[in-house]
Amino acid sequence: MAPLLADAHLHLFRDGYRGSHGARTVPDGTEIAAYENYRARFEIRAGLVIGYEADGIDPGNNAYIRGLASTRPWLHTLAYVDPATASTEGVIALLAAGHVGIAVYAPGPDEAAAIVAWPAALWAALDSARAIVSFNARPEAIAVLGPFLRTAGANTRFVF
Q1: How many CB atoms lie within 10 A of CB 44?
Q2: What predicted TM-score, i.e. pTM, was given to this entire model?
């Protein structure tokens, strides 16, 4: 089998992820070990871990995934940022901690409008860092975000 060069979107949680019926997909505390086995089997050389801290799933997920990445140079992390409370200082601190960008969830136009209202300094910090910004957005949010992002920073990389 040919190696898979990168896994471009994965989630890792301290206690694993509970599926739609509340069952864990892997036993408690073994998610990273399971992924390490998967990585070896499919020869994955790099992974982009998308942080998520909403809905009570893992409130410390940003710190957890940075901790994993500190001993696994193949892991690259995007920190979860709440669209309504994001701040320039907070984003700068997340980038300084080692995250290569941010993950933003915008299920609707209200969250998208909050993102569009972020201060220019926040966007400048992302652009200066050549950050990746991952948008997990539904079509109604993309309709709001799209026109704005066409004029956003030249060095920031956006993924949907």
Answers
A1: 18
A2: 0.87
